[in-house]
Design goal:
Elements (H helix, E strand, L loop, with lengths): L2 H26 L4 H17 L1 H12 L4 H19 L6 E6 L4 E7 L2 E5 L7 H12 L3 E5 L5 H17 L7 E3 L5 H9 L5 E4 L3 H8 L5 E3 L5 E5 L5 H12 L10 E7 L3 H10 L2 E3 L2 H8 L3 E2 L2 E2 L8 H8 L9 E5 L17 E7 L2 H15 L2 E7 L5 H10 L2 E6 L3 H6 L32 E7 L9
Parallel strand pairs: 3-4, 3-6, 4-5, 6-7, 8-9, 8-15, 9-14, 10-13, 13-14, 15-16
Antiparallel strand pairs: 1-2, 2-17, 11-12
Helix pairs in contact: 2-4, 2-5, 2-6, 3-4, 3-6, 4-5, 5-6, 9-10, 11-12
Length: about 450
């Protein structure tokens, strides 16, 4: 069959898929809260039951990350997300205010296009599917071509459990053989009402160019400032815990440490205590050569272990090395260590004082992480420093004394919405600067009766 015929066949199949999901969503839109909550629970339980198997599938198929950590992310996307939102009202009248004579009605958006990355192929699919089910939306997934089997399996598990619990057939769908052309066709399809894109900058830009309402995310380049007042041992443990989680594929993970001069040597010592390897200048040069390519980040290092990356660069490090650390002075774009690396590679900078540390962090985040995440390790009594950091940093998530990967997605603080899609606001070219969650998949009607008494000034 010629390429033109194949393309026409694929487009016809996409039309048929979306027509089925649209019809299912129209039926689902009439469901009541109790029915929706039962479906939401059943789907979450099924995803949790398959979490370990899906984690193994993801690592086997993509060659990225760590099975035990992907299991944690699948658990987070299913059980943790379910428990946080199980009592949320998402159907019909969700709020009334007799005094103000208002009420709020929640309505589904319709059909959501879910673009899934290769770095978090199962947890992101679970997360987006559960969001759609909780809000009476249909969803059709476009997996990354290098993660299609595990993403489709995650979607299938959630879909089957939802239907068994009473959801309409075809409420969750997927493109079995994804391609750039089909992903583009999905995002631009007349039956799609919202695009949620998680992936590289090119894919996110395409989502915002689709002509549809879109929720996309920007790149991360998280700096972690360690102040002289911080508990250095705990701060370094946090960084390593985050940076090594799933071999650094979460976009919120720390890319650089900016240490106050007074604690710089202590930070280096603690890094070594946590099995990090401090590269020599010659070794840094070798590793630096494999971080970037002409197209951007080298995909070959993404989600790989520190030992494997070092071997690729021709550097000999212990098998159990947690991270590769390069002492750097340049925070210009020409320095590969100043970029997002999505792997257990860290840059380490020295700052003469706290204002200089914040200035360095700002320059790093400007290279490629605007709007995403920044971290400060500091004594909580140092309110002025926390305020200064928060006011200066253009990031949607400003974490204090927290591992960035886990903290940004909603662990360690109940006020951070659990999410695997992290908006970066206008700083990062996104429509939202917060964690994408259930509320973003709803239309709201505000019913307001006339009030005679107007406010007085």
């Amino acid at each position: 069959m010629c390429n033109t015929c194949c393309a026409k066949t694929a487009a016809h199949e996409l039309d048929a898929l979306l027509n089925k999901t649209k019809a299912a969503q129209r039926r689902y839109a009439s469901f009541q809260q109790k029915e929706v909550d039962a479906i939401f629970k059943a789907a979450a339980q099924a995803a949790e039951k398959a979490s370990e198997r899906l984690a193994k599938m993801a690592v086997d198929e993509t060659g990225m990350g760590i099975v035990s950590d992907k299991f944690v992310k699948n658990h987070f996307a299913s059980v943790f997300f379910y428990k946080r939102h199980r009592r949320d009202r998402t159907c019909g009248i969700v709020a009334k205010n007799a005094q103000k004579r208002t009420m709020t009605i929640a309505c589904p958006l319709g059909v959501v296009a879910g673009v899934i990355p290769t770095t978090n192929p199962t947890s992101t699919a679970i997360f987006k599917a559960l969001m759609a089910l909780k809000t009476r939306n249909g969803i059709v997934f476009s997996p990354h071509p290098r993660a299609k089997k595990c993403t489709v399996e995650a979607a299938r598990i959630v879909a089957e459990a939802a239907v068994k619990a009473g959801a309409p057939h075809d409420i969750v769908g997927w493109i079995a053989e994804p391609s750039l052309e089909l992903t583009d066709g999905l995002m631009k399809h007349p039956l799609v009402d919202l695009v949620i894109a998680t992936g590289g900058p090119g894919m996110v830009k395409a989502a915002y160019s689709s002509g549809k309402p879109a929720l996309g995310v920007g790149a991360g380049n998280t700096p972690a400032v360690i102040d002289e007042s911080a508990n250095v041992a705990e701060a370094v443990r946090c960084v390593i815990k985050s940076k090594t989680f799933d071999n650094g594929v979460i976009c919120a993970s720390e890319q650089a440490i900016v240490a106050h001069n007074a604690v710089y040597d202590a930070v280096k010592k603690e890094l070594v205590n946590n099995r990090a390897y401090i590269l020599s200048q010659a070794e840094s040069t070798k590793v630096g050569k494999i971080i970037l390519t002409e197209k951007g980040l080298n995909a070959e290092i993404v989600g790989q272990s520190a030992h494997k990356i070092a071997k690729m660069a021709g550097v000999d490090v212990p098998q159990n090395t947690s991270a590769l650390v390069s002492e750097e002075k340049s925070y210009e774009a020409c320095n590969p260590f100043a970029h997002e690396k999505l792997s257990p590679i860290l840059a380490l900078y020295r700052a003469s004082d706290f204002p200089k540390a914040v200035e360095t962090a700002l320059k790093l985040i400007t290279i490629g992480g605007l709007g995403h995440t920044a971290v400060l390790h500091v004594n909580l009594k140092s309110r002025e420093k926390i305020d200064h950091f928060a006011l200066e940093m253009p990031a949607g998530r400003l974490l204090v004394n927290s591992p960035a990967s886990q903290g940004a997605i909603g662990l360690y603080n109940a006020c951070v919405p659990p999410s695997l899609t992290l908006g970066c606001g206008s700083w990062g070219g996104n429509s939202l600067s917060e964690n994408v969650s259930v509320k973003h998949l709803l239309n709201y009607k505000l019913v307001a009766a006339r009030q005679i008494d107007l406010p007085k000034f």
